[in-house]
Amino acid sequence: MGKSVTITPATNDDAEQVLKLQYLCYQAEAALYGDYRIPPLTETLDELRAEFDRGAAVVARLGDEVVGAVRGTVGADGTAVIGRLIVHPRMQGHGLGARLLLAMEVRLVEGGAPVERFQLLTGHRNEANLRLYRRLGYEPVGTEKISPRLSLVTLEKAPQGAPATTASSATTAR
Fold this sequence. Notes:
Layout: E1 5-9, H1 15-33, H2 39-42, H3 45-54, E2 56-62, E3 65-74, E4 79-87, H4 96-110, E5 117-123, H5 127-135, E6 139-145, E7 151-157
Parallel strand pairs: 4-5
Antiparallel strand pairs: 1-2, 2-3, 3-4, 5-7, 6-7
């Protein structure tokens, strides 16, 4: 009998598995841009736990193993910033990233703070991420050149049932 993937709120007990998975998942991103000092690869366990405490996080589990995760926060202006969406390489291509992202959107909306827009960032060369985000209704609203090899694309969408808004300036948060 096969196990199914479940998506649940993350706890501090998940932090070590999430950090290890994050390190594995961001190797490809680092190689894409030739930079292995990107924040997801230098984040410490204490920093990750602090981020869990400040915002929301959900994980995808296959049995006891964390095979995906995503984090988010809602700012005072109603911008729900979603980041660090990761899916174990062996689980990619099966819709788990979309399930995690949609679960995070629901969690942020239900978290109590009003959400005016969802926002996320991805590298300009990460075509798989750009395709996923566009398929889920996110539209590019800005690009910021970080280095000669890396530009970050900011994408946004309105929560379901809310009118679309245009950001006056793209916020960048990593």
